[in-house]
Amino acid sequence: MAKKKNAGQRDYATADLLKAKCDEYFRTCDEDGALYGEAGLALHLNVTIETLRRWYDGKRCPDFQETAQMAYLRIQNQIETDPRYQEKGMVTRGIFLNKQPRFGGYQDKVEARQDISVNVNMGKGMDDSDFK
Question: Is the pLDDT of residue 13 over 70?
């Protein structure tokens, strides 16, 4: 785990150190046969989910943004391709996760109703001959 020396010091000195720690998380999950997850990644990095999301959004440590986004992309890829998400009881979880902003942000189909009505009022002094 990364240790902070002083308050306000970054959790990881460089994006490369963060990437190495993320890779370690994914490797550990693969070895254990565990599914990837946002909470598991945050716990492995010893940061809060909020910190991880700020890295993803570039709001904190902008140089970590690409590394965080690639980590989330790896989680999203597993959600979309791992056969375990097709098993009974997991399909709903996969759909829910894919609707999350950092895992695809997919939406249910929205059907827009497009009824148009036109109302024409003829003014005084107009008759059918005005429309020929």
Answer: yes
